Amino acid sequence: MEADIKKMHQNPPYGMIIIMFIGAFVALLNNTLLNVAIPTIMEEFEVSPSTVQWITTGYMLVNGILIPASAFFIQRFTNRKLFLTAMMLFSLGTALAMLSPTFGVLVFARMVQASGSAIMMPLLMNVMLTAFPVEKRGTAMGFFGLAMITAPAIGPTLSGYVVEHHDWRVLFGIVLPFAIFTLIYAFIKLKNITPNKEVRLNVPSLILSSIGFGGILYGFSTAGDKGWDAVEVYGTILVGAIALTAFVIRQLRVDEPMLEFRIYRHPMFALASVISVVLSMAMFSGMILTPLYVQTIRGISPFESGLLMLPGAIVMGIMSPITGRLFDKFGARILAIIGLTITVITTYQLSKITFDTGYYTLMAIYTVRMLGISMVMMPVMTNGLNQLPMHENPHGTAMNSTLQQISGAIGSALLLTVMDKRTESAGEELYKEAMGSGNVPQSPDALAQFKMELGSQAMLDGIQFTFFISTLIAIVALILAFFIKRVTPPKSTEVTVETVEE
Q1: What is the mean pLDDT of residues 1-24?
Q2: Which of the four pLDDT bands, split at 50, 70 and 90, describes residue 1?
Q3: What SUPFAM superfamilies does the record point to (predicted)?
Q4: Gap between the Cα atoms of 340 and 335, Å rounded
Q5: Hey, is 224 helix, strand or coil?
Q6: Which of 38, 139, 392, 499 is most buried, judged by most C-beta within 10 A?
């Protein structure tokens, strides 16, 4: 087995990695494509805002259930079988979504899509960790970051253009040919390279994991819409937290855990996880608050809003492979410190935006911020994974993907809550000031206009304050970056691994 891995390290299977890369890119692009189209879908199927959110909530819940289980799938089945199954499910879900006659069918189709896409990122990351030696992993993971970061960022721009000029079903029509091509090409060319072993699925662990991660994801994701005082929100978070605690305790006691939490005994992996979670929360503030400011306060169209964020996505795409090469040469610490310093400065600048901030000024700040983030995410994650022995890689990749889902949902919910509360209090203060100075108009039309302007001012204050909170979160990540050390993986003690041939 070791001889095969050494041979593969000398001549990595670039062809099959490109196949898997395309599949992962398409799956991630699909994640953000529907965001702009939600109002159109709501109107066509005549459903309420809370109901239409199941397009994204259902997708996210399936991800939350399957991603923690990906470590079991990666160990038990060959990468060929897993990837073909994932692409088949994703293609089937995409076709069904494009043709869906009812809203229920559309939600079901999105969940089928998610059952395929959930496994792709952990699988691709695990294949790359197996295929490349430590000294080349940074470059390889840089190209992996190209898919992970760029695809979701391009989604809103593409979606905005399509929704303005075509039917929302065209969004799925764009994705489907790429999915089918990847499936056919993978069937012909894909080979098995990852080690496998006989592991059994621990059903109680799967149930606890599904309730735990699913409950927390659902609770935090619906908090913005239903409010924190809704039983549906705090109840599902509480149940999820209890189930997740039981899940962790069980994983630490069983001989073959579904998700190995003992990987946190490796200090650099643990530190990388904390930095990634903190940075994800700060990153989501830009991806949520910037379009909100541009569209709601400034009245700019969804397409132009997406266009504003596009240079940032392009910069991240260009920088990801470059950052990977720099990581191989200099390690993660210096890149993370420089990148997080840029992130802190630009996030603080976003906390100072006004009604008069220029479109291109905002674009420049957002783009430089994305440059900073691109220098941190993949190097820190790769450095953490480098400390794991090979047999723990599936657990490391599953843990990273799971934490990204959780931190994204929690970060979005908390930051939107901060914004709402600040907007509400700012609105009350502004109205009291206007009442005290006698500047409140009396005529109904003038009063309505006055309240609208007051609401915009209050929302701007809320967005500014939330960006300031994001700055403080980014500073925490910057402080943690000074503790990063360059690592090399220990030799695997796993002796029961064998390659499964088909």
Answers
A1: 66
A2: very low
A3: MFS general substrate transporter (SSF103473)
A4: 8
A5: helix
A6: 392
Q: At 423, is the secondary structure helix, strand, or coil?
A: helix
Mean pLDDT: which of 104-118, 151-165, 398-412 is highest?
104-118
Q: Has domain 262-434+441-490 been given CATH number 1.20.1250.20? A: yes
User: How far, in Å, CA of 238 to CA of 212, rounded?
Assistant: 9
Cα–Cα dist 244/226, whole Å: 23
**Contact of 12 with 127, CB cutoff 8 Å:** no
- Secondary structure (DSSP) of 359-397: HHHHHHHHHHHHHHHHTTHHHHHHHHHHTS-GGGHHHHH
Lowest mean pLDDT among 275-279, 343-347, 465-469: 275-279
Which of the listed ranges 115-129, 297-311, 340-354 does the model predict with the highest average pLDDT? 340-354
Q: Which residue in 286, 55, 293, 76 sits closest to 159, CA to CA? A: 55
Q: Which helix (H) or strand (E) holds 345?
A: helix 332-350
Nearest to 83 by CA among 179, 197, 183, 188: 183
Note if the pTM is more than 0.85.
no
pLDDT of residue 225: 67
Check for a shared fold between 1-198 and 262-434+441-490: yes
Query: What is d(CA 29, CA 26) in angstroms, rounded to the nearest whole number?
Result: 5
- 189, 13 Cβ separation under 8 angstroms: no
Looking at per-residue pLDDT, the higher value among 1 and 286 belongs to 286
Check residue 168 and give its pLDDT.
Answer: 84
- Tokens coding 82: 């897993």
β-bridge mates for residue 196, sequence order: 498
CA-based Rg of the chain, rounded to a whole angstrom?
A: 23
220 closest CA partner among 410, 43, 30: 410
Asked if residues 337 and 480 have their Cβ atoms less than 8 Å apart, the reply is no
Contact (CB, 8 A) for 67 and 409: no
Judged by average pLDDT, the poorest of 252-261, 286-295, 466-475 is 286-295
Residue 330 reports pLDDT greater than 80: yes
The separation between CA 16 and the C-alpha centre of its own chain, rounded to angstroms, equals 24
Instruction: Extract the tokens encoding 338.
Output: 């420089």
Structure tokens at 350: 């976003």
Whole-number mean pLDDT of the chain?
A: 81
Q: Determine the pLDDT at residue 493.
A: 42
Question: In angstroms, rounded to a whole number, what is the distance separating the alpha carbons of residues 141 and 21?
Answer: 11
Alpha carbons 125 and 140: distance in angstroms, whole number: 9
Domains of the chain, by residue range, sit at: 1-198, 202-257, 262-434+441-490
Q: How many helices and strands in the chain, by DSSP H and E?
A: 19, 0
Which tokens in the block code for residue 373? 């983030």
**Superfamily in which the 1-198 domain is placed by CATH:** MFS general substrate transporter like domains (1.20.1250.20)
